[in-house]
Amino acid sequence: MASGPRSRLKGGMAKVRIAMGLAVLAPLITFAALLLTRNGIVSLDVGLDVLTLQVAQVVAWFALGFAVLSLAMSVQQFRRLGLISIAIVIVCAAVAAAFFVQSRSIAVAGPLDVSTDLTEPPAVPGATGAPVACPGVQAVMTQVAPEKATDALQAAGFSVTESQLFRSRGVRDGFWFGMGHEAVVRIRPGRTDVRVVARYDHTDGGATCKVAAALVAALQAAA
Fold first, then answer.
1. Closest Cα to residue 199, out of 173, 175, 176, 160?
2. Is 153 exposed, middle or buried (0-12, 13-18, 19+ CB in 10 A)?
3. What is the bridge-based pairing of β-strands 167-172 and 159-163?
4. From CA 30, how far away is CA 94, in angstroms rounded?
5. Which DSSP symbol is given to 205?
6. Residue 214, strand partner residues
7. In whole angstroms, how large is the CA radius of gyration of the chain?
8. What's the CA gap between 216 and 78, in Å, rounded?
9. Over its length of 223 residues, how does the chain's per-residue pLDDT go in tens digits?
10. CA 90, CA 158: separation in Å to the nearest integer?
């Protein structure tokens, strides 16, 4: 008689341990994909689209399902396993929700080459095609001092690679899968324009516009 409850408790603990392992498996896959992509071992499409948004996301949802099942099967040992089972369900639900939100966000196609001057955009080495405008992102209608332009680039997360009297340039290496940007600040009498170009060819959920907005905001604050 005594062995029955002990056996059920051991079985319940085993399921809890499996659920705990599954709860961290999807983030571990994502981290591994991030390292592989940033080190050039796999392409951005493979690291982000396949390993993260497909494989890791499936694992995250499977972990949530197993955690819910584990909670349901631990009812008889709820005093010992209930709280930890609930905690695992919450963690798995948060991880799965994060994957769901991120996959929908990254799928949004935003411009990858943006400028505040479409008539005569600032030149960015290697950039091809015509930039587009971002809603609400406009030129700074003043001649920003060169040192202020450099400060604004740094404030927006860029490493300055060029600083001249009427032009500053910087690069920004994104942590997530190396999705970085290159930016140029062009200074003219009565006007300062920016151009931000993504250093990748992938939908980014409008990240390039957000980077350009942050740079313009930093310039306005420095003006």
1. 173
2. buried
3. antiparallel
4. 15
5. T
6. none
7. 25
8. 55
9. 444 556 655 666 777 788 888 889 999 999 999 999 988 899 999 999 999 999 999 999 999 999 888 888 776 666 677 788 888 899 999 999 999 999 998 988 889 999 999 999 999 988 888 999 999 999 999 999 999 999 999 999 999 999 999 999 999 987 778 889 999 999 999 999 999 999 998 998 899 999 999 999 999 987 7
10. 37
What's the distance, CA 46 to chain centroid? Answer: 16
Contact of 70 with 18, CB cutoff 8 Å: yes
Give the separation between CA 103 and CA 123, rounded to whole angstroms. 33
- Tell me the HSE value of 98 on the side-chain side, using a 13 A CA sphere: 15
How many H helices and E strands in the chain?
6, 5
Q: Domain 113-222 belongs to what topology? A: TATA-Binding Protein (3.30.310)
The token duo for 43 is 């392409």
Token readout for 86 is: 């609930």
Outline where DSSP puts E strands in 11-145: 113-115
- Which sign does the torsion angle of CA 155, 197, 211, 180 carry? negative
Domain boundaries, the chain: 3-106, 113-222
The tokens for 61 are 């949802």
The two three-digit tokens of residue 167, written as one number: 């032009």
Element (H, E) at 151: helix 146-155
On whether the CB atoms of residues 126 and 91 are closer than 8 A, the answer is no
